[in-house]
Amino acid sequence: MNGHGTGDYRTGAENATFQPPTGPVSNPAGFVGPAILQSHQPLAVKQMMAKVAAQLAHDPMAMQQFCDRVYQLLCDDVRAQHERAHSYRKRY
Q: Comparing 13 with 79, which gets the higher pLDDT?
């Protein structure tokens, strides 16, 4: 039970109908929904995402490691974007 009704809380995400974000890409308000709602992945991938999210929710150490890894990937991406933009400006 999830405290909000009967059944397993994970089945809602696994059986939900997923809709694309509303609004244009330039409006970030359309992209504030959970990643699983914005995903165009097959059902098996969405089920795996729901399972991992449920496991992380109950393991603070795993959640910290996950957050650290996401942060590292975001920093790497920002650095790569900066390097690309900087090298592009040098050419012109």
A: 79
Residue 10 CA to residue 32 CA, distance in Å, equals 20
pTM of the model: 0.50
The CA distances from residue 86 to 75, 77, 80, 91, in Å, are: 16, 14, 10, 9
Neighbouring C-alpha atoms within 13 Å toward the C-beta of 60: 0
How does 71-85 read in b/e, with b if 16+ C-beta sit within 10 Å?
eeeeeeeeeeeeeee
d(CA 86, CA 92): 11
Lookup result for tokens 């699983």:
36
Q: Are 48 and 10 in contact (CB under 8 A)?
A: no
Q: Which amino acid is at 81?
A: Q
Read off the pLDDT of residues 54-69 as tens digits, 9 standing for 90 and up: 999 999 999 999 999 9
Judge whether residue 26 has pLDDT over 60. Answer: no
